[in-house]
């Protein structure tokens, strides 16, 4: 284990620890992540598992558009899990926050508890829904749909505990940040070069 890894909080256990890194410098705002996520996961028209926040920054004539891809942060201290009365919201052994559709009663407590507004009530299935890193894909080693479709290669997915993983390399070599660290949720979606100022 490298000293950098220890400083960043990577314990490097033998089991996998899935995470995503989003390099906001490479996001061009094409929205392909949103479209492919909807198609891959049959997300209802009015809802999103992945989306891109857009904001105009600066003052004329120096104006630019900033893009911030968003989704569930698969938090280590996920408020949605503790808010769920049935145990339908849980964390897998690989650190992925999931919803068990057989246990979900559609109460919506988890959606209210999520400080990132990353959950929604699926109007077709009548249960809570969110990003699950495309857990249903036939090949577990295949990247989620949003990563495969990203034309700017802004999204990376992999095992933080694998030194050969692109997310491990990115988190080791780049200054990464998370959304709203003051929430204490320990998000597992990391950003590079994101302009998170208000």
Describe what you observe in this structure.
- The chain has a four-stranded mixed beta sheet with strand order 8-1-10-9. Strands 2-3 form a two-stranded antiparallel ribbon. It has a two-stranded antiparallel ribbon with strand order 4-5.
- The protein contains six helices and ten strands.
- The chain has 198 residues and is of the alpha+beta class.
Briefly characterize the structure.
The chain has 198 residues and is α+β, with helices and mostly antiparallel strands. It contains six helices and ten strands. It starts with a helix and ends in a 6-residue tail after the last strand.
Protein traits:
198 residues, alpha+beta, four-stranded mixed sheet, two-stranded antiparallel ribbon, 6 helices, 19% helix, globular
């Amino acid at each position: 284990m490298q000293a950098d890894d220890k400083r960043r909080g990577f314990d490097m256990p033998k089991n996998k620890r899935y995470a995503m890194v989003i390099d906001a410098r490479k996001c061009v705002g094409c929205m392909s992540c949103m479209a492919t996520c909807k198609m891959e996961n049959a997300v209802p028209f009015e809802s999103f598992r992945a989306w891109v926040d857009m904001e105009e920054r600066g003052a004329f004539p120096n104006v630019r558009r900033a893009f911030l891809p968003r989704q569930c942060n698969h938090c280590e201290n996920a408020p949605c899990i503790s808010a769920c009365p049935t145990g339908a919201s849980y964390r897998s052994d690989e650190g992925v926050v999931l919803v068990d559709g057989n246990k979900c009663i559609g109460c919506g407590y988890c959606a209210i508890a999520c400080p990132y507004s990353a959950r929604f009530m699926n109007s077709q299935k009548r249960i809570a829904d969110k990003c699950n890193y495309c857990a249903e894909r036939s090949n577990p080693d295949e990247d989620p749909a949003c990563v495969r479709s990203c034309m700017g290669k802004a999204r990376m997915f992999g095992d933080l505990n694998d030194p050969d993983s692109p997310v491990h390399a990115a988190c080791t070599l780049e200054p990464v940040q998370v959304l709203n660290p003051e929430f204490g949720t320990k998000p597992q979606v990391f950003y590079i070069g994101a302009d998170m100022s208000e």
